Structures are given as C-alpha cells and as structure tokens.
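We now fix the convention by which a protein and its fold are recorded. The integers have meaning only within a learned vocabulary of local backbone shapes. The record below shows the convention in full.
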Amino acid sequence: MWIRMKLTDSIVKSLQEKKGKDIMVVDLASIEDTICQAFVICTGGSPQQVQALAQEVGEQLLENDGMRPTAVDGMRNAQWVAMDYGDVMVHIMLPDAREFYDIEHLWEDADITEIPNLD
C-alpha cells in the first residue's frame, strides 16, 4: 500500500509540474477483480500537452523512483495516453475524450480524490 501511495503522489506531482488539470486519484484497492489498485486521471489541453504530461511522468518516475511503465499507449494521436505502472494506471486525456469515457466513474464503489488545480 505504501508503494502505491508513493507512486500516486509522484505521478500527481509530475502532472502538476506540466500544468495538468482536473487530476483525480481513483482508489480501486477495495474493489475485487480490478486490473490495478489505482487510476490517476488527468486532462491535458491539447495533444501536445497530453504528450508532454506523459513524458514528464515517465521521466520523473524513472529518475526519482527507478520505475518504468510496462506499457504506454496512445502517444501517437495523444487523445488519450494510458501508462501502466502495474498497480497504478495513468490516464491523460483531452477534455472531449475524458468527458465521453468518464472512466473515473466506472467503479461507483471507488474512493475518488480530486486534486486541486495549481493555477
């Protein structure tokens, strides 16, 4: 649990560094049969910002925590980038994709923490 919390904190800080918006941490640990223990979800304002946010997360987690994602998908079109860190999945999305898929509310029983924007 401690490692997951440290990982989510590192991801949130990385996203805030590049001005990610509407960051949410969805804690799935108490829900059975989920693909991971937590989602960190963030909105980027443009495809370029979505890519920059994903690159920042990847660089910071490698540098500070020695962690590499097992998979990254979506960098080419940068509408929705998913990064798999085992127990934690990072989802960086454009506003339209985030609104349409509404992944933070797929698990009604999950604890959701909204992170304030740093403007």
Q: What stands out?
A: The mean pLDDT is 92. Residues 2-114 form a domain with the Beta Polymerase; domain 2 fold (CATH 3.30.460.10). The chain is about 35% helix and 25% strand. The chain has one domain: 2-114.
